[in-house]
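Checked the freezer inventory, then went back to the computational side. Two predictions to log before the end of the day. The first one is the construct we discussed on Monday; recording sequence and tokens without edits.
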Amino acid sequence: MVEASLETGRTHQIRVHMAYLGHPVVGDLVYGYKKQRFKLKGQMLHAKILGFMHPRSGEYVEFSAPLPEYFVNILEKLKHNI
């Protein structure tokens, strides 16, 4: 698991940089490996915390979400393969 922060807001920034470093996001068929080890609904890319300035009120708002259960299950499988 990796913690990343967006700096530029460019499209696919995290996915492109992780692939460039040789560690593509699991499930990323565009920048990652075409052959996947797990049947996924999409990429294993999750925003645990998302915050921004509200456009109307100007206040900072922040939301958080736990990892989806299927992410946790796949992470456990990956841990045992390393």
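The second is the one RB wanted added to the comparison set:
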Amino acid sequence: MSRIGKQPISIPNGLDVSLNGDVLVFKKGNLTKELDTKNNVNVEVKDGHIVFTSKGDDRQSRAYWGTYRSLANNIVIGLTAGFTKQLEINGVGYKAATKGKVLELALGFSHPINYELPEGIEVSVEKNVVTIKGSDKQVVGQVAAEVRGFRPPEPYKGKGVKYVEERIICKAGKTSKK
């Protein structure tokens, strides 16, 4: 029995959810998201809740049950509240700026890095903190990981791009023999 899958998802006000065959359609304002369950789970939309049930009792069906419930819940949260990741830039001369749909990063290379932002992602920069916002949890996390990947924090001084909540454990440097 999937502990995640058996929990119903409550539909907040202002969000329209409909079921077209095996495809769940979420609408809020002009945003529309779809979740195709590919006939792996049974889905019901009733009484302001989305209820998922397993098609079978085998291991794969139970895995799909919890997975699709989590994906649907992430869409509901994304359309109502949105997702946010914050990156911190540490280092002398390291900075970030936004120009339209491009994030411009100066990270100690001989050239600036121009990162083209995907559709539906907003970025704001305040001092050394880059905030990435969007309605799709996977895309927000992917953008944050790619930006962090340009200059990951190094283990001696902690310079580079890191998540705000990330803790870098610094190594001790070389010691001289005398």
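For RB: The chain has two domains: 4-81, 83-163. The chain has two helices and 13 strands. Let me know if you want it refolded.
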